[in-house]
């Protein structure tokens, strides 16, 4: 059975932080599914990359996925603004059930809403690190950090390391 990764996405995502990991996963034979506010909604990245939501967050069941990818940009802030907290709840399934969760740049912001970062080691773009620390995480400045099932990276410069580790997490 092939593996499947949910990608939670909103407008203003960092284009390369979607396209590069998505391509790495698909090249490894892993299916990717974009989850967002509304099915068939087009979301647009900061630099014009377009993606279509395949499954609405209301219909998405985290147990249907073998991993979660959270690209950065301004999208994580939009996702956290969901009045019902659905994205944090969705991500919490992965953090609490030892299912791989991958977040780059601003992506780890969504993981804050899981309330599962206490004692975990993560990295992120500089202006998110204090928020992670306040959520109880041990924050380091490294290109990629693997803490059990959570893989985090800082910026697009880290994509080679990030992509290698996310694929590795999903290998049998």
TrEMBL record:
Keyword terms: Glutamine amidotransferase, Transferase
DJ-1/PfpI domain segment(s): 3-169
Annotated transmembrane regions: none
Coiled coil: none
InterPro entries according to UniProt: C56_PfpI-like, Class_I_gatase-like, DJ-1/PfpI
Gene Ontology MF, one: transferase activity
Domain of life where this protein originates: Bacteria
Family membership noted in the UniProt record: Belongs to the peptidase C56 family.
Identification of the protein by name: Type 1 glutamine amidotransferase
């Amino acid at each position: 059975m092939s593996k499947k990764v949910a990608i939670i996405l909103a407008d203003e995502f960092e284009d390369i932080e979607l396209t590069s990991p998505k391509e790495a996963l698909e090249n490894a034979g892993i299916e990717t599914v974009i989850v967002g506010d509304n099915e068939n909604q087009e979301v647009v990245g900061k630099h014009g990359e377009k993606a279509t939501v395949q499954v609405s967050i209301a219909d998405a069941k985290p147990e249907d996925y073998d991993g979660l990818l959270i690209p950065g940009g301004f999208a994580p802030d939009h996702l956290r603004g969901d009045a019902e907290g659905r994205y944090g709840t969705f991500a919490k399934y992965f953090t609490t059930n030892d299912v791989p969760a991958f977040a780059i740049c601003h992506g780890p912001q969504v993981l804050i809403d899981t309330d599962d970062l206490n004692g975990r080691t993560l990295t992120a773009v500089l202006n998110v690190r204090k928020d992670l620390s306040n959520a109880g995480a041990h924050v380091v400045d490294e290109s990629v950090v693997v803490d059990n099932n959570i893989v985090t990276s800082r910026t697009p410069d880290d994509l080679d390391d990030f992509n290698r580790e996310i694929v590795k997490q999903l290998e049998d």
